[in-house]
Amino acid sequence: xxxxxxxxxGTESRTDPGGDRxxxxxxxxxxxxxxxxxxxxxxxxxxxxxxxxxxxxxxxxNIRRVIERFAEHDVRYxxxxxxxxxxxxxxxxxxxxxxxxxxxxxxxxLDNMQRDNVRVRHFGHIExxxxxxxxxxxxxxxxxxxxxxxxxxxCLSYGSRDEIVTAVQRIAEAGIPAGEIDEETVSAHLLTxxxxxxxxxxxxxxxxxxxxxxxxxxxxxxxxxTSAYWPDFGREDVDLALAEYGHRKRKFGxxxxxxxxxxxxx
Length: 266
Ligand code: FPP
Prior knowledge:
Blueprint (H helix, E strand, L loop, with lengths): L20 E2 L6 E2 L2 E5 L3 H7 L4 H21 L4 E8 L7 H24 L3 E5 L7 H13 L7 E8 L1 H14 L9 H7 L10 E4 L18 E4 L9 H13 L9 H9 L1
Parallel strand pairs: 3-4, 3-7, 4-6, 5-6, 7-8
Antiparallel strand pairs: 1-2
Helix pairs in contact: 1-2, 2-3, 3-4, 5-6
The protein binds farnesyl diphosphate (FPP).
């Protein structure tokens, strides 16, 4: 098992527009960038009479499984919502468990990710994290900086409104005249500047909301909600989500060529 992309990044399987790629497994269109809200760890544990920590542990263990399946489908960018700015309001003991799991994940997987050409990035307030975790993340980001295979973005102590406010502040500080500020300016000043927008957002555990996750970047993302709790969201669930995506018509507010033909025929 590996995180290695099926094709070399930026080659054969890329199609435009929308950043889609062609899955070597199915021959169908798959998203270039998938963002995931990994919800339901607590409920997964409660359902089994286990402490919530066991749910987070199972959730952390699931990450490798899911990313490997994405890599087999040649999905190039994966962005995980691991801990939101609002999650700081959870009991300190739960926050500590989540941080330990992230630390352990990076410790355990860094060699594999390096071997498989994965680039790790972090979005969020690194200065708010315990120093050892911040150092673990900085190290993973640094070690993998020049890798050009799958890109794994971990949103940790991240909130989208906060990100947008910071982007506006940076634009103001740069002295860019109001009349010159356009969508590209804003995109470029976000933490994700330079990263293609997500094509697909997956949220597990039956909730149907975005929860302050990549609000600007998800403007045209397809949304996929499933009742599966995150620790149960496996390879088959990945395949189902990608199959559903393959059936979606992405219009970006425009008409598709077939709609134009129908309009002209009328
Ligand atoms: C949501 O479930 C999950 C979280 C707030 C934490 C997600 C973190 C991990 C899976 C840990 C590992 C992360 C990485 C990147 C290695 P919930 O607790 O809100 O579940 P509930 O709604 O059922 O209570």
